[in-house]
Amino acid sequence: MPTDYAFPDSAAKTANAIEAPEFQTEKMSLSMGPSHPSTHGVLRLQLELDGEIVTGCDPVLGYLHRGDEKIAENMTYNQFVPYTDRLDYLAPLANNVAYACAVERLAKLEVPERCQAIRVICSEMARVSAHLLGLGAYGIDVGAWAIFLYTFTEREKLYKLFEELTGARFTTSYTRIGGVARDVPEGWVEKVDAFCDQFLPILENILNLLTRNKIFIDRTQGVGIISKADALAYGLTGPNLRGSGVPLDLRKDKPYSGYERYEFDVAIGAHGDCFDRYMVRGEEMRQSVRIIKQAIKSFPKGDWYAKDAVRIFAARKEKVLTSMEELINNFMITTEGPQMPAGEVYFEAEVPKGALGFFIVSKGGGVPYRMKIRSPSFCNLSILPKVCQGNLVSDVVSILGSLDFVMGECDR
Amino acid sequence: MSSLAAAPATDLLAVLQARFPAAVARPSGDHPAFNLPMAEVPAALRLFRDEHGYDLLIDVTAVDWDVEATPRFSVVWHLLSSTAHGYVRLVADCASDTEPTAPSVVSLWAGANWHERETFDLMGIRFTDHPDLRRILMWDGYPFHPLRKDFPLAGIETPLPDLEVAELTKVSVLPAPMMGGPFVASTGEMNLTDAEPRAKDESWNERNAKPAVL
pTM of this prediction? Predict the structure, then answer.
């Protein structure tokens, strides 16, 4: 029997495995998940195996479906903010920002520069923390336990900072439509700066544990190759698309929240394999730190809340007990929701997993008529049947980890 | 790559109308948006993809305009150009209000597969020529399309997918979100105040040992 090296690619390997008459064996069906450590949540893969080679893969989703889009149609724009935490629950701050920006497009609101800078810092911190978790979990998937311990130590430092800023470690609900929930606490920005300074050398140490690690390279290089054409055809976004060599980054290409003010590079891969996707995420963390440092250096003074938003989204509470109009306004916003113009907007933000989009159809009033959430993990996973085929079962674990998905967002 | 990719809506409309006279501009808060007859959508999407650089199918979804509205369902496609970085939105109304259908574009973008399955699952739009039109978020055999406007937020009671389980437990699935929470009891089943979370038993602590028999 020819060795593995005799085949140019995994498809040829599969073809051989199927055709060789002496190895015409019975196909086996294997259900992987929904509770499986390497499916990172509740993804289930219905695999069809020929020996140890995957000949078919049917992902089964929906175990975490909560009907977020239906819920959104039944509550006001302000009330939906906490639900966005639960989409990609590893980067809630980034989701908060994406949702707030989408509704602000509909309301045609401009937020002040200070608010934009706060949002950029939050999003990038969320990106670092999400990638740290993704990296740590990926390390465990392919057998490198130590990485997890280092990345979680750093992630914990970030979560402490989140807690100080938002009052919550995990479900932050920090943005409001037209602003953020509160200004940054005194001395917080300096703490973030200090975190960045100590984080960069640690990040290098963490990445050095993997980048030239023979075992890690063997498990990832040349595995799960996604061509540029495939990546585009399946609508991949984020690090998975960039890992295949497409330089699409919405922060660069369609800047929002003032990203055009910061200098950063978009990392892209050359081969589109698991290793490239890992490298892209590593570089993204360095670039995120670069953005945070710039944002802190030029941190603007002023309002952290759009003046126009106070009237339509959230009344100031100071005068509620002394001014009749303020009380009425506060009551109306709380009960009926912010009064929005009718129209349709689609806004996408670059969150850690890719492009998170909100398509909002408004008929006016305080409740969206229809809100479609376009989640990057859903699209990124749709390529699984194609990319798993012809690989070994153990490579499926490697591929899943490299796609770095979150089921909360995928199933919504 | 055509220079028209990031062109303003008027230019794109002219391009579209040259090939599809029935296309009209659609009011939109942000990106260029067009209304098209349903049958022309795949050809129009191909035009955008092949000649104007809109190479990413970002999203396929549908809107239910109301139970009594006619046309009741519209299908919405969003495209993004990875080179010129512009979005475009195409909208087409479904001819039938009871059995809405739309043409599948899986042959143009493989990624349309899951989007169309989701739209079928939650909104009940049948995509003709879809290779594998199964439910994706709800389970196989689920009888409703939950994002339709006549589907209530509290859900509709449906039998458990596995009949053996239902036989054993003697209950069908109770709809979310009213039921199934840790502190929620059905009315009449028990005293509702007993179902509320209780403070922990404070008769024992670090200093006073836990009573032997509680």
Answer: 0.82
